[in-house]
Each structure stands twice: as C-alpha cells, then as structure tokens.
Amino acid sequence: MVSVLKLHRQKKYNVRSMPIQKDDEIQVVRGHYKGIHPSKVVITRLKLDKHPKKILKRKAKCRQVGKEKGKHKEETIEKMLE
C-alpha cells in the first residue's frame, strides 16, 4: 500500500510517495479512522531501514534523470546542425 509523503518530506527525499510500513507514522487527512485508505492518508515519519533507503535512492535517482529529459541546449542543437 503506497501513500503520499508530507510536503516537507517530499522536498527532503525528492520523492512524492512511498510504501507504508508497519512503524511509519501517518496522518489521516479525510474521513474517520475506520477504514483507513492510502488516498486519505499522509506519511509524516518514515522508518528508514535497509529496504526503504534503497527505494528512496532509486526513486530520487529517477526523478533527477527526468528533469533533464526533453530539454535542448544551444550547444546540443549546434552539434546536431553540423
């Protein structure tokens, strides 16, 4: 079950969502506590052991690659025209 991270955690880890684990702290955003669903929950504190750290590194790495994707610079255009 995957849920969104709180805004300051998103900026810190450069990741928007993470799988919810047993010892993570969450905040219910909408509705009541009965029937907690990931769309109504925000993760406030992550329990970072071995597996979640790997997920964070992998997801952050992918987001960095995506920022440069599709953007052309003058140098690359000049090389293509030559």
Short description:
This protein has 82 residues and is α+β, with helices and mostly antiparallel strands. The protein has helices spanning 7-13, 50-68, 74-81, and strands at residues 2-5, 17-19, 25-28, 41-45. The model has no long low-confidence stretch (mean pLDDT 79).
Model description:
With 82 residues, the protein is an alpha+beta fold. It has a single domain, classed as SH3 type barrels (Roll), CATH 2.30.30.30. Helices cover 41% and strands 20% of the residues. A four-stranded mixed β-sheet has the order 2-1-4-3. It is elongated, with a radius of gyration of 18 Å. The model has no long low-confidence stretch (mean pLDDT 79). Keywords: Ribonucleoprotein, Ribosomal protein. Belongs to the universal ribosomal protein uL24 family. This is 60S ribosomal protein L26-like. Residues 57-82 are annotated as: Disordered.
CATH architecture: Roll
The pLDDT mean sits at 79
Give the count of structural domains: 1
Beta content comes to: 15-25%
At the first level of CATH, what is the class?
Mainly Beta
What is the count of β-strands? 4
Biased composition (Basic and acidic residues): 65-82
Keywords: Ribonucleoprotein, Ribosomal protein
GO biological process, one term: translation
Family: Belongs to the universal ribosomal protein uL24 family.
